[in-house]
């Protein structure tokens, strides 16, 4: 199986509304999760670039749908995080609407990478949005992020809890222990996304 070369990924464009997105060709993989769960950091780690996606200690850093092109026909979408309680109500609603619109209207999205801080997995909005993704019958990968914050045995406990709770997804998902800071799970992430690309692009040619 061919593993994609992620290192050449480049910034494509940002959008504030799904309906503004004019790109129709190819497929997208969306990185979603609570604000501060490590989405932008994971994209930088995946692509071996320090500042491709902007990351920050302050939640709410990503406020637009940002597209990155891995190879022609494959984009990664970095979405604003949900659930950032300190953002003003109207801004929070705007980000939420952006995400739901994207989930509902964007047929080019063929895979979701859900990022959850391993210490607080499957919070309310995670469960809600995973359900929507499941109904879309797209590929789902769960990254339990910042895993280096826990011991190996704690990591395994969290891993099993999440797997059990998501049993209803009928095995149509994968879970990875992941750390951008310690580069844990990167190889597996690269290979899973390459698989998705092969499945949707190569097989549909
Ligand atoms: N300990 C640890 N911290 C991490 C890791 N990955 C990201 N972080 C930190 O978590 C914070 C949030 O990271 P971001 O990548 O900006 O998170 P985000 O999900 O894109 O956040 P929003 O754009 O607000 O939705 C930053 O301070 C990162 O340095 C990790 O593997 N381990
Ligand atoms: Mg971000």
UniProtKB/TrEMBL annotation:
Keywords: Cell cycle, Cell division, GTP-binding, Magnesium, Metal-binding, Nucleotide-binding, Septation. Its cofactor is Mg(2+). The keyword Cell inner membrane does not apply. GO terms for molecular function: GTP binding; metal ion binding. This is Probable GTP-binding protein EngB. It comes from Buchnera aphidicola (Macrosiphum gaurae). The lineage of its organism: Bacteria, Pseudomonadati, Pseudomonadota, Gammaproteobacteria, Enterobacterales. PROSITE patterns: G_ENGB. Transmembrane segments: none annotated.
């Amino acid at each position: 199986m061919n593993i994609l070369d992620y290192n050449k990924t480049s910034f494509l464009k940002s959008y504030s509304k799904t309906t503004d997105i004019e790109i129709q060709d190819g497929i997208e993989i969306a990185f979603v999760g609570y604000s501060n769960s490590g989405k932008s950091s994971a994209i930088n780690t995946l692509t071996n670039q320090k500042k491709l996606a902007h990351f920050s200690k302050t939640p709410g850093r990503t406020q637009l749908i940002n597209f990155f092109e891995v190879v022609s026909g494959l984009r990664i979408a970095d979405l604003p995080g949900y659930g950032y309680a300190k953002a003003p109500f109207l801004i929070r609603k705007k980000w939420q609407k952006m995400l739901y619109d994207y989930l509902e209207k964007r047929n080019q999205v063929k895979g979701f990478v859900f990022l959850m801080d391993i210490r607080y997995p499957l919070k309310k909005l995670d469960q809600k949005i995973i359900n929507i993704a499941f109904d879309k019958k797209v590929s789902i990968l769960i990254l339990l992020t910042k895993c280096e914050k826990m011991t190996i045995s704690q990591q395994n406990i969290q891993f099993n809890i999440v797997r059990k709770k998501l049993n209803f997804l009928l095995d149509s998902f994968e879970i990875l222990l992941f750390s951008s800071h310690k580069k844990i799970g990167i190889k597996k992430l690269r290979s899973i996304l390459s698989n998705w690309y092969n499945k949707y692009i190569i097989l549909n040619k």
